[in-house]
Every structure is written in C-alpha cells, then in structure tokens.
Write the structure tokens for this entry.
Amino acid sequence: MSRLTVNNQPVEYRLDPATPLLWALRDASNLTGTKYGCGTGHCGACTVDVDGRAVRSCQVPIGGIEGTYVTTIEGLSRERNHPLQLAFIAAEVPQCGFCIPGIIMTASVLLKHDADPGEAAIRGAIRNICRCGVYPRLIEAIQRAAR
Ligand code: FES
C-alpha cells in the first residue's frame, strides 16, 4: 500500500508499489486531466506537482513517493480557475489542448519559485512538448498570470 496526499485528500493506493504515479492518478483516482503522452519522461504531458516540484508522473513509482503531497490539474484551484488557467484562456493558448495540463502544472511550479519569470526563465522551465507549437502564446500567458 502507498499512502499519498492527492489534491489535499489522503489516498491509499493498494497497487503494486512500482505502479507509475500517472496510472494511479488516472486509473485509481479517476484524475484524467493528467495525460499520457510518451510514457518515457520526454513529453511532459503527465506533469504534476509533487511537494513543490514539477514531476513527470509516468516515471515515478508510487512506492517511491510515500507521504508526499501531489497536486494535479484538478487540484490546482478548488473553487475557481487558477490565474494560470485564466491567463491561458485569455491568451487562447490551447490548440488541441492535450499537453496543456502538464504545461500549466509545470508553470505553476515555476511561479512558486519565480514570481515574475522572464522569457528565458519560462523557456528554461517549460520543456514540455507541444505538437501544435503554441509556445509564443504560452509564454505570454505565463507572464500574464504572474502579473
Ligand atoms: Fe510522461 Fe511523456 S507521458 S513525460
């Protein structure tokens, strides 16, 4: 059994400890906002916040993160949209939208550590792959959310 706190709720996963966090979130917790892209740690679609770090959940076995606090896109803001979500909507960032939850989770961790990131800092932090190529708009949105 692996005990975590997910979106401020205690969770006990009765799964093989080697199960990637991605699949625990999607299949056991029905938190399907966290996406499966490559499964190899490259694309970032599966990014969640684990204890304030942006983590590619397809690469993290639940048995290795006992006792951590996990935040997914569903838990980013409980009552209304997070400023990042509002900024992404205002800047019309999503095209197909598949990569956006992982990008927003990566950006939310960036803003925890850098309240006013410049373009270079954003480009350095957002290593997520977007096949639609919305990078210019997402940089604008992250800077808008930081204001
Ligand atoms: Fe995890 Fe691509 S699905 S990095």
